[in-house]
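Q: Here's a chain of 92 amino acids. Please give me its 3D structure as tokens.
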Amino acid sequence: MLVECHDVFSELGIADLDSARLMEWIHKGRAGEPLTVVSPVCPDYATEKSLDGRIHYTFNGVNGGIGLAAKRLYESLPRIDTLFRVASTATG
């Protein structure tokens, strides 16, 4: 299960976690304890597209929508959900 977690985290660009603590957390979920995932994100700061096509923050204001970090997290949720559903039923 640890390999699968590292593979998915790498695929999504998620910072690597302490492996022992991650497995401890997964085992708690398998034992029926409720688990919570928290991911703080920044407000929807103003952005602009650079000449190379990449979007970067200007911090010239705050918009009223979903910021870049929250959008990326939202797009990653189906993959994370699948990973942890598999983890909850896997053995080992």
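Q: Can you summarize the key feature?
A: The chain has one domain: 2-89.
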